[in-house]
C-alpha cells in the first residue's frame, strides 16, 4: 500500500479487505457481484465499497473505493472501474438511515436465495436460526437500481440487524465488520441447514415459541457479548496463514 491513510481509515480498509477475502473461503461470494461496505469511523457519510469487476479474492485494502452517502466518488484508485449501482442503492440506504451501523453485507448465496423464495421464510429449526428470530423481510422489486426503493428497504429493515430480500438474497447490518461477518456466516449456516433439512423429506421438529424466544435472547449483544468481536482475531489468523496480500 503506497497511499497514506489515517490510522482509523487504514484499519477499516484492512479489516474490510479481510472480510472480502474470507467470504469466498466460506462459500458466500458470487463472482464479481455483491458488496460489503464499511463506514469509516468518525465520519457520518464516508463508506468504503469494492470496485465493480473485482472478485472478492482480489480485494486489497488499497483497492477499495471511498464514496459518500450521495454516491459521489471521494477516492478511486481504479481509472477503469466504478461502483455497482445496485450496491450503492442498497448499502447507502442502510448506512444513511442507521448511523450505528458500521458494516453492511449483502449476499446471493445458493442457500440464502433458496430460503428467500420460501413463503415460510427462515424457520427456527436450529439454534443458529433462532438467533434470527425477528429477521426482517423485503419484497422483491427487481434489480435494486431505483433510488425510491431505499425508503421501503429501510422501513422493512427497521432496527433489525438481518433481513431476507425475498427472491433475492441476504443482508446483515452490524456495528462493526467483525460482527457483520459473524452474523452473515451464522445466517448462511441457518439457511443451509434449513434447505438440507427440508430437502430430506423427514418430519421436522420446531421448538416451542418459549424456547425460540429464550434462545434468541441469549444471542443479543447486551446479554452475553457482541458475537463476532472475540472471533475476529481468529478469522484474521485463519486468513494470514493462507494469504496476507489483503493488507496491501
UniProtKB/TrEMBL annotation:
<dbReference type="GO" id="GO:0051015">
    <property type="term" value="F:actin filament binding"/>
</dbReference>
<dbReference type="InterPro" id="IPR036409">
    <property type="entry name" value="Aldolase_II/adducin_N_sf"/>
</dbReference>
<dbReference type="Pfam" id="PF00596">
    <property type="entry name" value="Aldolase_II"/>
</dbReference>
<comment type="similarity">
    <text>Belongs to the aldolase class II family.</text>
</comment>
<dbReference type="InterPro" id="IPR001303">
    <property type="entry name" value="Aldolase_II/adducin_N"/>
</dbReference>
<protein>
    <submittedName>
        <fullName>Class II aldolase/adducin family protein</fullName>
    </submittedName>
</protein>
<dbReference type="InterPro" id="IPR051017">
    <property type="entry name" value="Aldolase-II_Adducin_sf"/>
</dbReference>
<feature type="domain" description="Class II aldolase/adducin N-terminal">
    <location>
        <begin position="14"/>
        <end position="195"/>
    </location>
</feature>
<dbReference type="GO" id="GO:0005856">
    <property type="term" value="C:cytoskeleton"/>
</dbReference>
